[in-house]
Amino acid sequence: MPPTLRELLTLPAFTGAEVLCGHAGLDQPVTWTHVSEVLDAARFLSGGELLISTGTALAAAPAPEQERYLRSLAEGGAHGLVLELVRDLPDIPPAVLGAARLYHFPLVVFRQEVSFAQLTRAAHARILAPPTRGAEPSLAPLLDALAETGRSVAFLEAQLSPLLALPARPRASLLGTLEALLHTNFNVAESARRLGVRRQTVYYRMEQLRGMLGDFSGHQRQLALHLALELHRSEAGEARTAPAPSAAQPPDR
């Protein structure tokens, strides 16, 4: 989700920015920023842009053209205009301010020189930032459903029985390799790094896994294996934490 103009104005590069009007539009998403000094900038807009300008051309234009400029930005889908009030444009022309208020269009000014390169770089870094990932979706509801319906043992056997029948050492190696492959989308190099083994070892174990489990390239099969590994881990954990029978109690008859 692109950041809003309100969010961009909190960036360090925008320190000193003053919002003159259009506060209601500050929560609109900004899709890009453009430095523009032409009065027909609206024809380049695709929607959601924030324009940044020294206002040189705007200062030289007559009032009707100034008003048309602001109106064209609002109607063209821009989500704000940033003006530097320093040299050619020491103050906002009344026609521009009036049009911005009429269209509830965000008008932002700097009353000192700023680096447009820093503004656009900071804004684009925020716009292009990858979305933050939430917590990994949990398989707990599926595990609970299998247990509650009495299908967990049958499901585990159907997915992993050839591995579970192995002696402890090869069973642990192959289960760990399968888990690493699933979590890395079958990236052999990354799986080897996670397991602390050579890539050739992972290739060898993959052949073993295919021979014992069959083809696991399909998405549904991989999801089932994910679930079976979680189920196996859960049951193994419960077995380790289960209390040992008391020696003081007589055996059941």
Sequence-ordered SSE layout with sheet pairings:
Blueprint: H1 5-8, E1 18-21, E2 32-35, E3 49-53, H2 56-60, H3 63-76, E4 80-84, H4 94-102, E5 107-110, H5 116-127, H6 140-148, H7 152-164, H8 168-183, H9 188-195, H10 199-213, H11 219-241
Parallel strand pairs: 2-3, 3-4, 4-5
Antiparallel strand pairs: 1-5
Model description:
The protein is α/β, with parallel strands linked by helices and 253 residues long. It folds into two domains: 5-127, HprK N-terminal domain-like (Udp-n-acetylmuramoylalanyl-d-glutamate--2,6- Diaminopimelate Ligase, Chain: A, domain 1), CATH 3.40.1390; 140-240, Orthogonal Bundle (Arc Repressor Mutant, subunit A). Helix content is 51%, strand content 9%. The protein has a five-stranded mixed β-sheet. Helix 9 crosses helix 10.
Question: Which key features would you list for this structure?
Answer:
51% helix; Udp-n-acetylmuramoylalanyl-d-glutamate--2,6- Diaminopimelate Ligase, Chain: A, domain 1; elongated; alpha/beta; five-stranded mixed β-sheet; 253 residues; 2 domains; 11 helices; Arc Repressor Mutant, subunit A
Q: Tell me, what's the shape?
A: elongated
What is the architecture of the largest domain at the second tier of CATH? 3-Layer(aba) Sandwich
User: What low-confidence regions span 5 or more consecutive residues with pLDDT below 50?
Assistant: 244-253
> What is the number of E strands?
5
Structural class: alpha/beta
Q: What is the CATH superfamily of the largest domain?
A: HprK N-terminal domain-like
What's the pLDDT, averaged over the residues? 87
Q: What is the strand arrangement across the widest sheet?
A: 1-5-4-3-2
According to CATH, what is the class of the largest domain? Answer: Alpha Beta
| Main sheet specs | 5 strands, mixed
Give the helix proportion (percent range): 40-55%
Helix segment tally: 11
**Spatial separation of the terminal alpha carbons:** 66 Å
Q: Strand-residue fraction?
A: 5-15%
**Radius of gyration, taken over Cα atoms and rounded to an integer in Å:** 32 Å
CATH topology assignment of the largest domain: Udp-n-acetylmuramoylalanyl-d-glutamate--2,6- Diaminopimelate Ligase, Chain: A, domain 1
> Based on the structure, what is the oligomeric state of the protein chains?
single chain
Overall number of structural domains: 2
Order of helices and strands: HEEEHHEHEHHHHHHH
